[in-house]
Structures are given as C-alpha cells and as structure tokens.
C-alpha cells in the first residue's frame, strides 16, 4: 500500500479529515531584483543574481533576500576567502579574525558550474548553500552585511555589477 493511501486511511481511522491537517510551510516566492556577471581580466568568473520578495531592494534594510553566484571556472576555497578579505580591505573594513577562521571552516572548493547561495531571513539569520545543499549558518548581522556589502554596499568595488544586481542597470 502506498504511503499516501496509508496516511489517508490512518486519518480516517483517527477521525481526522485531510483538510484538518496543517498545510505545509511554503518557501518564499522570490522575485529577481537584478542579475549580472563578473569578469576578471576579461575572463568570466561568475554570474550573480539577487532575489527578494519584491523588486524594490534597499540594502542593508531589505529582508529576506538571496544572493546566488554560479561559477564559470574552478576556484579553491582559500582563493575565494582571500578575495573576500581583499574586498573588505579595499572597502576599508576592519574585520575580526574570527570571520577568517569561520570562512575557512565552511567555504568549499568551487568547480565550474557550482553555485553558492546566501539566503538571509527576516531575523538576519543566513544560510549558505553549495549547489543547493546547506553548508553553513550565520547569525551575525554585521558579518552578513559586510559579506553581502562586497556586491551591494555603497563602497563596493564592483560598481557595474552592483548596479545590475540592484536593478539599476548602468
């Protein structure tokens, strides 16, 4: 007997109608705010997409949102981490050493076609997904804003990509 049929029979036996069962929790319906590509010395590195519940996005206030990167080449985890810290240095951010240790613990090696996605909820809790699978949680709003600020912040060095992601194409 199928699991669905067994479940329905159990509901009827217990006197519970299927309509009395709680509805499943739905994932947010994401709207693409903007998207673009990043190249380094004319070599495609990744495509990026920013999603939120509505197309109007105000960084750093809008929550929830998701930022997805789809990579065009292989990258070692340490190279990704070094790039993040280089960006923070260029933005003149002073960051705790604990951030570096945390990134070393969770950042995966990337292969061409892989994706990294950071989903941030209303409570400033973020989950990092590698190819759709959760690999880390972050509950530090300062870290989340600094990390996402690399691409969305006022001091981003990726100005064209920032404009594309925020939906104000250059």
- Under CATH at level 1, the class stands as Alpha Beta
Tell me what portion of residues adopts beta-strand conformation: 25-35%
Number of domains: 1
Got a strand count?
A: 6
| CATH topology grouping | Chalcone isomerase
Describe the model:
- This protein has 170 residues and is of the alpha+beta class.
- It has a single domain (28-165), classed as Chalcone isomerase (3-Layer(bba) Sandwich).
- The chain is built from five helices and six strands, in the order αβββααβββαα.
- Residues 1-25 have low confidence and may be disordered.
List keywords for this structure.
32% helix; 5 helices; six-stranded antiparallel sheet; 170 residues; alpha+beta; Chalcone isomerase; globular
Give the helix/strand layout.
Blueprint: H1 3-14, E1 31-40, E2 43-52, E3 65-71, H2 77-90, H3 97-106, E4 115-120, E5 126-130, E6 133-138, H4 141-152, H5 159-165
Antiparallel strand pairs: 1-2, 2-3, 3-4, 4-5, 5-6
Compact summary:
The chain is of the alpha+beta class and 170 residues long. The chain has helices at residues 3-14, 77-90, 97-106, 141-152, 159-165; strands spanning 31-40, 43-52, 65-71, 115-120, 126-130, 133-138.
